[in-house]
Amino acid sequence: MNNSRRISAVLAASALTLAGTAGSTAGAATPDFAQLSSTSSIPQISLPDQALDLVDAAGIELPAFVWQSSNKLEQGLRGATESHLEKQGHTKDARAYDFARDWAGQAARGEVKFYGRAGDGTNHLENGSGNVYRFKRTSAVRRLAWLQRDVPVQTSPVSKGYGVATSTDGDYIYVVEYFLDK
Fold it and tell me: Where is the signal peptide (predicted)?
């Protein structure tokens, strides 16, 4: 390689290097990862419900970020459960909602002991009672369909303040129903 080609190659490399850094100044803050992710044109992974049902039925483990599409299912379960409990004559209570959220967090962290598909949180037992229900995705879809049936609901003889919360750990969707004693 002769000298003129070497000089041309060095100048071209220098120009490309400077062109790549010219847009940013020394004092400019670089965006963090969350900003880059939210503004990128890379599509987010979202599988259709049918695909998630097949994966669940086959027992295939998916990473937690794929299950984030289950937020719609969680929201649907929470709303349908609230509607069902109100039809039974129970009333929303802010304190019961706090306790239910606490139990939902415990379930997602693996702190709840389950007997089949139901368990109890580890605290607030002196204030009331309830259940933490554990569902695989297909079972959660069936539960939602059951809650959304257009049938008469038997009213409870005793109206209680209630709270509902949901959470997920990627494998299960947890639904908490908590009822205050007083």
Answer: 1-28
